Amino acid sequence: MASLQREALDILAFGEPLMEFAETERQGEALYLPGFGGDTSNAAIAAARMGARVGYFTAVGSDAFGQKFLDLWDRENVDRSRVKALPGTRTGVYVISYGPDGHLFSYYRAGSAASLVTPADLPLDLIASAKILHISGISQAISTTAADAGFAAIRHAKANSTTVSYDTNLRLSLWPLDRARAVIHAAVALSDIARPGLDDAQQLTGLDRAEDICDFYLNLGCRIVALTLGKEGAMVAIPGERQVIASKTVDAVDASGAGDAFGGAFLAEWLRCGNPFAAAEFANAAAALSTLGKGAVAPLPNRGDVEAFLKEK
C-alpha cells in the first residue's frame, strides 16, 4: 500500500535500499539471483512482520529497481508514502559473491538516489509523530547531505519526544574510520537506543570487551545498548544492569541479514513489552530464523514463527 491509515507510526526508518544480486550455483554454473537489501529497509520489514506499524523514508531511482522497492514495501505493509522517486537517478546495487573466506560484497551505489537526500526532504511530521526513528551509520555514510539529513532527523525526533534508535553499522568502504567514528558517535550521543555489532564497535571504540563497549555507549547518553555478539547472542545494557542473552541455535544457511532481523524485531518487541532484555531474547530468535534461507528479506520470520520457535526452545 502506498500509505497506511494515518495512525501514528510505531517505527519510521530512514536510509538506503539496495538491490541485491547473490551468487548461487545451478548445474555447475554461477548465477546471480536478485533480492532486496539495505540495512534500515531490512529492519523496517522485519519490524512490520512482527506486527509493528512501520514507515520508510528514502529516495529511489527512476528505474526498475526503484519500482521493485516501492512494490516490496507495499507488499510488506510498510508505509512508503513519503519515499521520493527522483527522475534521472538510479537505485543502488550490491553483489554478494562467495569465496574461500566467505561473503564478498561489491557495491555500486555512488550517486544513488538515496545519497541525494537532504535535510529539506525529511518528512518532519512523520518523524515527530512516530514512536521510534530508526537510522544507521550507513544512512549517514553514503553522502555529506545524507549525513546532514540524518542529524536533522535525529534532532527533530528528540525535539518531539520520538525515541531514536541507531544501528552503528560500519562500512569502511564508504568512509574512513576517523570520519565514521566522529559522525556515528555524535549521532549515538543524541540517540536513546544504540544497536552496535561487536566487530564494528571494537573498531569504533578501540575497546575489546563487550562490557566495556556497552558502558562506552551508555556513557555517551543512550538509555539502552543492544550489542550483538554473533553466535554468542547479544549483550543488553541499561544504566545499572547488563545481561547476556544467549543465541538460538539453528542450521544456518545465510546470515547476511541476521543483524537487521535482530534490530527490527528488537524494536517491535520492545515497543510491545517495554523490556529490553525480553525484547533481545525475542530478537535473537528472529535473527536465528532469518538465517534459514538465502537473502536478507525473503527469510525474515513473522511474529507467529518467532513465538512458535521460542516455545520449541
Give short descriptive properties of this protein.
alpha/beta, four-stranded mixed sheet, nine-stranded mixed sheet, disordered N terminus, UDP-N-acetylmuramoyl-L-alanine:D-glutamate ligase, 313 residues, 11 helices
Walkthrough of the structure:
This protein is of the alpha/beta class and 313 residues long. The protein has one domain (11-300): UDP-N-acetylmuramoyl-L-alanine:D-glutamate ligase (3-Layer(aba) Sandwich), CATH 3.40.1190. Helices cover 39% and strands 24% of the residues. The chain has 11 helices and 15 strands. The strands form 3 sheets. Strands 6-4-1-10-11-12-13-14-15 form a 9-stranded mixed beta sheet, sandwiched between helices. A 4-stranded mixed beta sheet has the order 3-2-8-9. β14 and β15 form a beta hairpin. α9 (258-273) runs antiparallel to α10. The model is unreliable at 1-5 (pLDDT under 50).
* Strand and helix order: EEEHEEHEEEEHEHHEHEHHEEEHHH
| Strands ordered across the widest β-sheet | 6-4-1-10-11-12-13-14-15
CATH class: Alpha Beta
Mean pLDDT: 95
- What is the radius of gyration computed over CA atoms, rounded to a whole number of angstroms? 18 Å
Shape: globular
Instruction: Provide a count of the helices.
Output: 11
User: Any idea how many domains?
Assistant: 1
Can you tell me the residue ranges where pLDDT is under 50 for at least 5 consecutive residues? 1-5
CATH fold node name: UDP-N-acetylmuramoyl-L-alanine:D-glutamate ligase
- Spatial separation of the terminal alpha carbons: 35 Å
Total strand segments: 15
State the share of residues found in helices, binned by percent.
Answer: 25-40%
Oligomer: single chain
* Structural category: alpha/beta
Largest beta-sheet characterization: 9 strands, mixed
Superfamily (CATH H level) name: Ribokinase
